[in-house]
């Protein structure tokens, strides 16, 4: 049983299912390899990893599978941390640090060096490179292409998809507004780019000639079947993989995903400075009306709080990225999830 599409042929995979790269520890090498071994495409969410850690994780994936997999990074955006007064940024965070018994850190690390991260992807000849938040420089993309790496960009609008296609990507992930995690929007304001998956996918399919991957709110075979009917050649699922035993997130975060209601998530800039969808919690609610620095500055300022909260099982202060369909999550091994989604979609499509 399989759905052969332009995407499966491009990525050399059996099933048109991509497990989203999810930065922050969710996408362990075990998860990535399990999805790829099951015939989908596992993705290492490597944006917050040092180049050395990325190389090591790629090695671990390769011990577990010799099938294609992807590495995902954030395209860097210009930022100026000196625009923000540390005293002002830390003021609303003090109450959380006090509760957690931690001090504001002295020096902050904002981002990992993108060019060095990319160099690892290139040197390791990673089969698929996916990215979000923009388009990498042309010289980087052509070097990856020459190395035989398939390029997958993220779009939240038709305008962005056309820019990605002109930049030479091999496939476009259409990220609907239902999606968990950060908005990939890189042209214009994010509020204007909150297009739902069901509206976005056919518009992308009509506009670009490369395969379109539907993403946002897809949790089971109904989502896969619907996405294919809408003109997508595959799906990218993030939240659906969070409850899997191979996923590296905190157990309490997994519980929160499974306990979510249809209206449990919201978009917030409070944790990182960039709009992202997560399960509403105390930190999001209390910080809602605060002015916070742009990404990645706020992300660096809240890192110690999120880490200490995780150590103490305090999910009310952790970022719980998840999509609007979280309650459809199932606690099954990743390979079984891939198989079930394919089986369900096949049944619905009369295969
Ligand atoms: C916990 C989490 C972390 C994410 N991190 C990334 C990331 O590092 N890079 C990326 O391109 N997308 C990331 N995303 C977004 C996914 O690529 C995708 O758009 C989203 O998961 C699709 O919606 P769904 O969660 O409803 O499946 C993340 C999503 C989640 C839930």
TrEMBL record:
The keyword Oxidoreductase applies. Gene3D superfamilies: Aldolase class I. This is Probable nitronate monooxygenase. Coiled coil: none annotated. It holds the Pfam family NMO. One of its GO terms (biological process) is response to toxic substance. Belongs to the nitronate monooxygenase family. NMO class I subfamily. One of its GO terms (molecular function) is nitronate monooxygenase activity. The keyword Nucleotide-binding applies. Nitronate monooxygenase that uses molecular oxygen to catalyze the oxidative denitrification of alkyl nitronates. Acts on propionate 3-nitronate (P3N), the presumed physiological substrate. Probably functions in the detoxification of P3N, a metabolic poison produced by plants and fungi as a defense mechanism. Its cofactor is FMN. It catalyses: 3 propionate 3-nitronate + 3 O2 + H2O = 3 3-oxopropanoate + 2 nitrate + nitrite + H2O2 + 3 H(+). The lineage of its organism: Bacteria, Bacillati, Actinomycetota, Rubrobacteria, Rubrobacterales. It comes from the Bacteria. SUPFAM superfamilies: Inosine monophosphate dehydrogenase (IMPDH). PANTHER family: NITRONATE MONOOXYGENASE-RELATED (PTHR42747). InterPro entries: Aldolase_TIM (IPR013785), NMO (IPR004136). Keywords: Detoxification, Flavoprotein, FMN, Monooxygenase, Nucleotide-binding, Oxidoreductase.
């Amino acid at each position: 049983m399989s759905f052969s599409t332009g995407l499966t042929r491009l990525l050399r995979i059996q099933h048109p299912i991509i497990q989203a790269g999810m930065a922050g520890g969710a996408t362990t090498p075990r998860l990535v390899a399990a999805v790829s071994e099951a015939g989908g495409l596992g993705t290492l969410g490597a944006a917050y990893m040092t180049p050395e850690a990325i190389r090591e994780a790629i090695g671990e994936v390769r011990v577990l599978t010799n099938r294609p997999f992807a590495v995902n990074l954030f395209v860097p955006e210009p930022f100026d941390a000196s625009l923000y007064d540390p005293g002002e940024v830390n003021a609303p965070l003090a109450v959380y640090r006090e509760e957690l018994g931690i001090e504001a850190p002295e020096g902050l690390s904002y981002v990992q060096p993108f060019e060095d991260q990319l160099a690892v992807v290139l040197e390791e000849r990673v089969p698929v490179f996916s990215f979000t938040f923009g388009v990498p420089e042309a010289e980087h993309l052509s070097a990856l292409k020459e190395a035989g790496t398939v390029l997958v960009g993220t779009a939240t609008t038709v305008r962005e998809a056309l820019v990605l296609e002109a930049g030479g990507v091999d496939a476009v992930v259409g990220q609907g507004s239902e999606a968990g995690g950060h908005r990939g929007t890189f042209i214009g304001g994010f509020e204007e780019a909150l297009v739902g998956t069901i509206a976005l996918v056919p518009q992308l399919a009509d506009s670009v000639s490369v395969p379109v991957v539907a993403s946002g709110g897809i949790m089971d075979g109904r989502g896969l079947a619907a996405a294919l009917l809408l003109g997508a050649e595959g799906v990218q699922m993030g939240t659906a993989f969070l409850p899997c035993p191979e996923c590296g997130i905190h157990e309490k975060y997994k519980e929160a995903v499974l306990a979510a209601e249809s209206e449990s998530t919201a978009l917030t800039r409070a944790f990182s400075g960039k709009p992202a969808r997560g399960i509403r919690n105390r930190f999001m609610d209390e910080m809602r009306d605060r002015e916070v620095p742009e990404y990645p500055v706020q992300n660096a300022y809240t890192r110690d709080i999120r880490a200490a909260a995780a150590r103490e099982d305090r999910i009310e202060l952790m970022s719980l990225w998840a999509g609007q369909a979280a309650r459809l999550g199932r606690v099954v091994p990743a390979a079984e999830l891939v198989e079930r989604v394919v089986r369900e979609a096949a049944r619905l499509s009369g295969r």
